[in-house]
Amino acid sequence: MSGNSSNLHVAAARMPLLQSLQDELAELEQQHLIRRRRTVDSVQGASLQADGKDLLAFCSNDYLGLATHPLVVQALQKGASLYGAGSGASHLISGHSRAHMALEERLAEFMAPNVEQARALYFCTGYMANQAIITALAGKDAAVFSEELNHASLIDGVRLSRAATQVFPHKDYAALEQMLKVCSHKKRVVVTDSVFSMDGNIADLPPLLALCEKYDAWLIVDDAHGFGVLGEHGRGVLEHFNMKSPNLVYMGTLGKAAGVGGAFVAAHETVIEWLIQKARAYIYTTAAAPALAHALLTSIDIISGAEGQERRAHLNKLIRMFSHSLNLQLWQLMPSVTAVQPVVIGENAAMLNIAGNLLEQGYWVGAIRPPTVPLGTARLRVTLSAAHTELQVHQLTQAINRLDQMSYVAQCFAEVA
Known about the structure:
Blueprint: H1 5-14, H2 16-30, E1 47-50, E2 53-58, H3 70-83, H4 91-95, H5 98-111, E3 118-123, H6 126-137, E4 142-147, H7 152-161, E5 164-168, H8 173-181, E6 187-193, H9 205-214, E7 217-222, H10 237-240, E8 248-253, E9 263-268, H11 269-278, H12 280-283, H13 290-304, H14 306-325, E10 332-333, E11 340-346, H15 348-360, E12 363-368, E13 378-383, H16 390-416
Parallel strand pairs: 2-12, 4-5, 4-6, 6-7, 7-8
Antiparallel strand pairs: 1-2, 3-9, 8-9, 10-11, 11-13, 12-13
């Protein structure tokens, strides 16, 4: 525990409620499930400084390296000079600025080739956007069908909707069709991630959309890890599969590949108007700072232009290089063609030891444990960015290969002994 643990124990001894929490924290510690924060002292990037140590970061979702792009930074500064530091109110009071409106219009225009009668709505976070969509389109009179590996924001949105809920196995659309066939609810909603954030694989959306059209269901797609990265122009998974349907409700985050913050929903204009009127996560919160929206206009220009195509091409080259350069004997690289490249280690303690060893060598890699992933599948979640160089990726793969070889040899000796 931290240096304040003795103070926590003293306080807990005087209050049973605190003691209960302290006991549970101790249990998490024993299971190697305690999460700890590191403090970044520099700008985000492939190279950064955290807790006073120079590191190569392979744990960020800044997939195109736009978080520190000079034009995006300049746009953010200009946005602050034009609109100030905050919005001051919710969108439906006085917080909806010209910058918000301009961003929504730009996003609708950008997504129009893959969204029927496209209109867009800007949210403070992807978590809020997912809760808004699901709770507004579903409800206690609806049936929701949720993918087994969906993100927590989708799961929480489903729970808040109070809809009758069924979970279908990962990418098992035959099982989903059986559920839809016997569903007696007139209002049906299917919810899925596009790129599954801990596995890196992509949902097979065309047959999923075909089912939703056949059984008259909404298809809500969380493209947090696809927007800006997938598709020739960066329009995400819808462009990747060349999809378009009035049944689609699309959510893309703007703090990952777009490099700034917030999220948006793109859908038929009627759906967006319904969200404005009924989505509590949109109505009852202060709007995001207009300066962020102003900066995102530049991000979208980069994503949709020639520079965006170049950055995506470089990222895809790094993805292929990473997967082809690993030569694992003990651990498992999960199949993924995206920037999320998980290496499954197994047990929590072993995975933390490996992640700690990499950190000592100067590589910061995400250390993912249950309940985020199933028991026994703790993993290194390597995320690649267009900001990385080929040399940096090569160095990381060599470091992982060495540690895998050492662990393999140690296991062989243990089995012999």
